Amino acid sequence: MTDGVIEGASAVRDEDAFDVEAVRSWLADRGTVLTGDIAVQQFGGGASNLTYSLRTADADLILRRPPGGKKAAGAHDMGREYRIQDGLKDAFGLVPQMVAYCEDESVIGSTFYVMERVAGIIPRRDFPPEVVLGPEQTRQLCLNALDVLMDLHRVDVNATPLASMNKGNGYVERQISGWSTRFRNAHTPDIGNYEEVMAWLETNRPADVANCMIHNDFRFDNLVLAADDPTRPIAVLDWEMATVGDPLMDLGGTMAYWVQDDDEEFFRLFRRQPTNLPGMLTRAEVVAYYCEAMAPVIGTSSVTPEQWRFYEVYGLFRLGVIAQQIYYRYFHKQTTNEAYAIFGPAANHLETRCLAIIRDGSA
């Protein structure tokens, strides 16, 4: 952070502005008093929920709220995201400290919650210029991040306040059905229909391997790394899609973002985390490392390429649906953010990538 500017944050977009004084008053009523000027910035890395920095001379907070426009049913549930992080603070630990949740939309026009900011390094598409990791450090960061994911998957959910989230077996089936419905609801006429992909996933879905606490959006840009040791994660952010479900489905979702330096050109353009650096594990190495360590949980120390193909296609399909949901808002002019225009071509490309894996076994 330099001159009050947080890495990845900038001035608030006009369409995303909110009544800061209303938030000050609301927080004061709940015991958090912000004195003096409140410096507000908006983080631009995400394309789903909106995230802001609220800082005063003695407070460093984050506010999260949903985007405007049409939203998928069940998406952008601020209360749920708040309760998940609050419920994991003892069993998992690497979550920010929650401050308060507001379900009264009259305060700023939507629900929102406030939490303490965890200061550190957040890897975006690339590391900040001052962070330089050699291949060995990069490999250690990769292993440490995967260890965090596995620690989450080992949490005894039934011993936390989140036990009611465990719906038991059927997670894989629910995900294929749910994401298929979300895609059809967000489809626009200029995007492929994914029907072959959805039919293949339905036909080839395996049984659940376990019921674990899963993050469902585990990426490097949702990690905070220690400022004095960029190989050490100190917090996990963005718990919007966290739930109890199949851990291999969670890993499949993570691998959809894992763009390697030897991937084809358009997929490399879509990279949003530094998985191209020398020393990073390949997707195949990540899967092998995870399965060997998690054998007691998932019931096997390895998965074959043919078995993994389902989870790889699922992860890319789910990412395609997320891209399409974002693009839907842009297509229907529910946002003026031109950065969202690329999500349409991204959704098209991800369908092509899924079909290549289905038909040929590789993208």
Structural features, described:
This protein has 363 residues and is an alpha+beta fold. It folds into two domains: 9-116, 2-Layer Sandwich (Phosphorylase Kinase, domain 1), CATH 3.30.200.20; 135-360, Aminoglycoside 3'-phosphotransferase, Chain: A, domain 2. 39% of the residues lie in helices and 13% in strands. It has eleven helices and ten strands. The protein has helices at 20-28, 78-88, 135-153, 171-186, 195-204, 247-256, 265-269, 283-293, 295-298, 305-331, 343-360, and strands spanning 9-10, 39-43, 50-56, 59-65, 98-102, 112-116, 212-214, 223-226, 229-236, 243-245. The strands form three sheets. It has a six-stranded antiparallel sheet, with helices on one face. The protein has a two-stranded antiparallel ribbon with strand order 7-10. Helix 6 packs across helix 10 and helix 10 (305-331) packs antiparallel against helix 11. The protein is globular.
Quick recap:
With 363 residues, the chain is an alpha+beta fold. Helix content is 39%, strand content 13%.
Task: Name a few traits of the molecule.
six-stranded antiparallel beta sheet; Aminoglycoside 3'-phosphotransferase, Chain: A, domain 2; two-stranded antiparallel sheet; 13% strand; 363 residues; alpha+beta; Phosphorylase Kinase, domain 1
One letter per element, helices H and strands E, the order comes to EHEEEHEEHHHEEEEHHHHHH
Helical proportion?
25-40%
Strand content: 5-15%
Given this structure, which CATH class of the largest domain is correct? Alpha Beta
Under CATH, the topology of the largest domain can be stated as Aminoglycoside 3'-phosphotransferase, Chain: A, domain 2
The main pleated sheet reads as:
6 strands, antiparallel
Shape: globular
| CATH homology superfamily name of the largest domain | Aminoglycoside phosphotransferase (APH), C-terminal lobe
| Spatial separation of the terminal alpha carbons | 39 Å
Number of domains: 2
Number of strands: 10
Tell me the strand order in the biggest sheet.
1-2-3-4-6-5
Question: What does the average pLDDT come to?
Answer: 92
- Tally of helical segments: 11
- Catalogue the unreliable spans: none
Query: Structural class of the secondary elements?
Result: alpha+beta
Radius of gyration using CA atoms only: 20 Å
CATH architecture of the largest domain: Alpha-Beta Complex
